[in-house]
Write a structure and sequence with these properties.
- This protein is mainly α.
- It has one domain.
- 74% of the residues lie in helices and 0% in strands.
- It contains four helices and no strands.
- The N and C termini lie far apart (62 Å).
Length: 82
């Protein structure tokens, strides 16, 4: 095997490892206690009941990230509609 083939295989292995790490981080279960969830819900009440209710659910890191992106998009849309 030539050196360029080793580089290609190494690059593929690095990409697979990075993908597995990202997947494992995004699928970490919610580790908050009931009290922490209630506290987060109370803190989110000024932002609306739906956002406060989301804090009470067991959600993975990926789901939380998706909600944050959705909320940011809604905030941008609301700011530009003025």
């Amino acid at each position: 095997m030539s050196q360029s083939q080793f580089r290609g295989i190494g690059a593929i292995l690095v990409l697979i490892a990075l993908g597995l790490i990202a997947w494992s981080i995004l699928t970490i279960p919610d580790q908050r206690s009931t009290g922490e969830k209630i506290g987060d819900a109370v803190d989110a009440l000024p932002q609306g009941l739906d956002k406060a209710a989301r804090q009470l659910e067991d959600r993975t890191t990926g789901e939380k990230l998706g909600d944050a992106v959705k909320d940011a998009g809604e905030d941008i849309k609301r700011q530009t509609d003025r």
